[in-house]
Write a sequence for this structure.
């Protein structure tokens, strides 16, 4: 009996050693899963299943570091560029592009997916950053108000200074609001500097309402959203009408709002992705860039971040095709000019409009 026990113990020990040898890491092999770190602004969103698809394909964990709004996130990337906090940076837009490129943050990468993206979105021809999505800041209007009043829609920025629209527009302060700043730049694109100041003086004379932020303007002042706000026009986003349908408490067959999309009435913002210099995951970072430019991620973008995909093969959600309007002539300004003159523009605007 004792002999049989010794044999059983011996066999158990041998099996344990064999299993341990098979499962032990080989020389030079890490037991930890590879991690790809992506720094983003706070508004970044993607479906868990979409990110999981990339992780499963490449056996990697993607970690997102949300670093504040676009300006704050870029500042963190600049301050840490000697020892980057991430491998990839997502979210620098055309308003901050010049500053980002001047800081020499990114490794150039020409993704094969660029063949599926219109050239108009490729603002950096050295491919240090690649376009991912775009959105338009537009004036949204309350369709019911204009129908009930029998009032024609403004067809241009100039129309907004006419007496029939007095007191009907609410905008955001460009010093404290991203859409407010975008609308200010649309007026600069249309009228130049200092012509934009004359335009804003005319808006002030026409009782334009200025509030500090988008939430106050949209949910407090805008008549179509609150149902009782005094202004039937608000500076918002081209994706706001489909959002009204998607998030409606009761099902809607028509969006209660639409956008004014005349020449330079909307300001286009394009977001980019770049591989940060100093990454130790260069090849994997390139694969991730390819992934977010590809059809799977691009089709996830609209309902996650309420912007439009740049990949022309991506299919838009039904709500976007039915209720969103894409301007044919959106306003844009040179990124270097924005970097050099943004603060002066805002200061001059403040003197004309608020003082």
């Amino acid at each position: 009996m004792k002999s049989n026990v010794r044999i059983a113990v011996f066999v158990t020990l041998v099996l344990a050693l064999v299993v341990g040898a098979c499962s032990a890491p080989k020389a030079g092999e890490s037991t930890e899963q590879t991690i790809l770190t992506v720094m983003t602004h706070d508004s970044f969103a993607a479906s868990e299943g979409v990110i999981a698809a990339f992780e499963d394909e490449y056996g990697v964990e993607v970690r997102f570091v949300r670093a504040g709004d676009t300006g704050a996130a870029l500042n963190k990337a600049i301050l840490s560029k000697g020892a980057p906090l991430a491998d990839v940076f997502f979210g620098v837009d055309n308003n901050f592009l010049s500053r980002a490129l001047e800081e020499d943050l990114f490794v150039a990468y020409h993704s094969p997916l660029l063949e599926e993206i219109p050239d108009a979105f490729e603002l950096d021809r050295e491919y240090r950053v690649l376009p991912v999505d775009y959105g338009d800041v537009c004036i949204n209007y309350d369709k019911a108000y204009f129908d009930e009043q029998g009032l024609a829609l403004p067809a241009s920025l100039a129309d907004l200074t006419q007496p029939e629209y007095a007191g009907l527009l609410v905008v955001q302060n460009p010093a404290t609001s991203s859409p407010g700043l975008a609308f200010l730049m649309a007026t600069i694109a249309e009228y130049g500097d200092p012509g934009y100041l004359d335009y804003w003086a005319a808006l002030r004379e026409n009782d334009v309402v200025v509030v500090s932020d988008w939430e106050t303007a949209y949910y407090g002042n805008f008549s179509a959203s609150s149902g009782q706000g005094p202004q039937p026009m608000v500076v918002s986003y081209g994706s706001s009408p489909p959002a009204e349908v998607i998030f409606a408490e009761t099902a809607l067959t028509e969006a209660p709002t639409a956008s004014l999309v005349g020449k330079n009435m909307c300001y286009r913002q394009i977001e980019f992705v770049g591989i940060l210099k100093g990454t130790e995951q260069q090849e994997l970072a390139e694969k991730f860039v390819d992934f977010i430019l590809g059809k799977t991620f691009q089709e996830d973008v609209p309902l996650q971040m309420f912007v439009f995909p740049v990949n022309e093969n991506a299919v838009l959600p039904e709500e976007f095709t039915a209720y969103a309007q894409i301007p044919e002539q959106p306003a844009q300004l040179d990124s270097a000019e924005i970097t050099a003159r943004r603060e002066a523009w805002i200061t001059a605007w403040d003197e004309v409009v608020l003082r």
